[in-house]
Give the backbone structure.
Amino acid sequence: MKRSKTNLLWRSSIRFLLQHPWHFALSILGVALGVSMVVSIDLSNSSAQKAFSLSTQAVTGEATHQVTGAADGLDESVYRQLRMAEKPLKSAPVVEGYGRLSVVNRTFRILGVDPIAEAPFRSFASQKAGINLSDFISGETTGLVSHDVASELGLAVEDTLMVSVSGHTFPLRLIGLINPDNDQTRRALENLLVVDIGTAQKLLNMPGKLSRIDLILPENTNERAIKNITTLLPEGADLSRSDSRSQAVSQMINAFEFNLQALSMLALLVGMFLIYNTMTFSVVQRRPLIGRLRGIGVTKREILRVVVQEAILIGVIGTAIGILAGFFLAQVLLKLVTQSINDLYFVVSVQELSIGIYPLIKAAVLGMGATLLAAYWPAREASNAEVSTVLNRSSSESKIKGRIGTLALAGIVVGGLGGGLLLIPNGRIGMGYVSLLMIIIGFSLTIPLLVTGLTGLIRPVLSTINGLIGKMSAQGIVTELSRTSVAIASLVVAVAATVGVGVMVDSFRTTVVSWLEIQLQADVYVQVPRAVTRKADGELDPTVVLRLKQTDGVAGFHTVRSVDVHTNFGIDQLVAVDNEVSSHNTYQMKESEPGFWNRFRNEAIVMVSEVYAYRHHVDLGDSVFIRTDRGRAGFQVAGIFYDYASDLGTITISRNTYDAYFDDPAVSGLALYATDGADVDELVKRLRSRSEGLQEVLIQSNRGLREASIAIFDRTFTVTIVLRMLAMLVAFVGVLSALMAIQLERKREHAVMRANGMTPGQLWSYVITQSGAMGLIAGILSLPLGIIMAYILVYVINMRSFGWTLQLMVSPALLMQAVLLAFLAALLAGIYPSYKMAKASPADALRNN
Amino acid sequence: MNNEPYISLGRLTKSYQEGSVTRAVLRDLSLDMDEGEMIVLLGRSGSGKSTLLNLISGIDKPDTGKVLIGGTNLVSLNEKQRTLFRRNNIGFVFQSFNLISTLTVHENVLLPLKLKNNADREAFRKATRFLEEVGLGDRGDSYPDRLSGGERQRVAIARALANEPLLILADEPTGNLDYKTGQLILKMLHTLVRKNNRTIIIATHDRDICQIADRVFNLQDGVLNEVKNHTEITGE
């Protein structure tokens, strides 16, 4: 019985929604857009993580522990020693690195193994998998890829592949295909090239060296047994759990992914405004209807339930569409996210989206939660309205006008609390975003007051421009404040988000550009093509180095060596430089100990980047312990420098000190100084021709390198810019729906104006002027909020995420663009209603009321 | 025998705050009504007629006084209880019809019955019967915006009666209708109220209604005065 009663109310409610398809569709769109952003970011992040963890699992196999060396690997004699130990261990040697296959522009992981030792570790690389041992270890350059990869690339056994590693290209004969036994292995092997140890050493230029030795130790292995194994290892080598390295690598991208998630949440927040907006309109429009229902005895609770049910319906449809759209969007974002990870952190190749249940549950909870949260207030207001006043149209307006002072005060308190949160020392990134959210909410609450004030200012202007119609347009914004202020607030938040993110990216770019100018002092730079763009860990061929140094027109040079080392903080990048004399010009020091440059060449001291110091809480005078070929050695941090090349941070040491601790004469990069008056472009051409046929190297002029670096910078921010555009799209839809709803809802008022002699043109002008004025107000109000957001993003979020000091760069062009954007969005949103209103017959509008 | 009046309004006062000024709308107003009685409430616009109806229906509460309907004092009830009381015992006919635009004509009549938890079949039968009584048996599937003003008011009358309320409140039922349609509606309201033995209060400034009333009252300056001689007012 109760059910049929509810059905009738529900039927009425559904019919209302269907009678207003625009509102209904826009509400759904608001939820869908917000949810799709969250889903797409989550899916692309989790797919990248999943691909990374699958490929790591594949190459780790069943190994429980691993023996690793210092910077440039482990001598292969260590493996022999372990095999000859009193109690032989289950062990397998591994040589690992990256290379590119010429048939496809994709980076592959090269895994060098000994198939005889492999069986307990990686079934796909063992003899059991059907590897033809004689072909595999024949001494020729041979290898295996998975069956799927071969079909994808159109390869067959006995085909020859061209493999490029650190600028050298090798022909490799495909001697077999791996048949993965399950889907997980299939995906893990998507980017794997399995070769013999000897082949890998040749490809990766690691003669006599191993990347690591994998071990399987019984579960009950005690500390003492581990210590016994350690005694077999030479200085610099270390025994660690296999999962510790992958965990450390995976953690690198935590901050990066968190920030992307936060951006997607911002879109959801804007989506919430949209839902709030449309739900409020839906309720406001139905005030007379609700009044009638209340008049005939429908209780507040029943009204609340119906409005909440509507919200649930909108939430369910919007979330479902959002999840579906999120899949498609994720395909696009996945490429961008993977590109950024590859540029910044490590090589990961993701061929397909990994759809986990967690992102879907999260999207459903967020979509429904955001909808219900946004709809709760309008629903409550609808149910709480007194029956005697609900029939009175102006009651809600007089209510909000009486409340604008209180709302503004509440806004100042909420915003102030948000600001206060920023003052808590050592706050986390999450806290930064909570504070940002509180400031956004606080600012939004002051918007009715600010709109009233600004309307007062623009009224005389509009009156001058458009006479009485202009004046009426301005007045209309205030008389409909409960609706206009919400529409303006949603536009303000969205435009402010674009201002905030835009200013942050601009600030970052400006800082990086000026940093590059100081950093790049030499005329020509020579590097090895690399898998991870920001990591210069390749090796230049010594012959190439020698030939280039001796080229005509080269007046001087310095070298850089970049390696990954084990420190007391994990795996870190160590950079050895030999330009100690000119370094004080190229390195911008944040702080340093007295006489730092004089001590740098010969003492066991290092300088660390600002990011490194921030991430690891390292200060001047602290020590960093590095595993070297001479064993674990402590280096005092005597300087902290600005560096924007890596968000993971680097340790910089003098080449002289590096050579004393590492048996690694290799060079990763070469900087050349041209003789006075030499044409640098000509020199670059000359250098390129001299290196031809030896090693494929990147030779770039100072300008070329700077441009390339900026291009990489821009590329890594593409995903941010895409998200910013999507947030703007959500906002645009929001303002479109809000303004359309306002104007359509005022059909009768417009009809009265038409009946009183207003021409269609005048009505069009009235509606457009009002929409434009709202857009202009929103644009103006978005600036202070946008700049506050930028300030928090630059000085708090960025600092807490990465630790970079950036110069806040507010470009007037960007601000103008924001105001223009809001204005145009509002104008565009006003076109349809004004067209419709101007065309409608006033008699119909009056009759249908 | 029970001598208690069917409806009793005891010393009702109601005032509204308008800025710093308090405006008294009803002053110490009392009225007793018997079951089946038809009362007309006259008064100019703004005289407080609608306020009085709001107090009687429990939509609003008086500042002081009591509203007794069938032995229940509405003043002692909370908002929810008053809503439920209204749902079960009061029928409304408004000047602006106040039909639910998103429900069909039949569903509009059905709604109060459903709210009252009438059995589905019973509710359907009643709604159909009363629609037929107001002559709209064939328009049940139409939406209100397809009907003329007179037809909408007939639906409102059917909705008010179908609920079998203790009391029907009609607020300017002919206010939005032309003279001829208004007369037809009044005649129908009168016939159906009498036939179903309903008690009704009609608030209006249409003095022609006085002829069908049992008693006529004039609300002026917040005070209720009974008009003994209708001809004084109607001029007939």
In short: The two ends of chain B are 39 Å apart (CA to CA). The mean pLDDT of chain B is 85. Chain B touches chain A through 32 residues (CB under 8 Å).
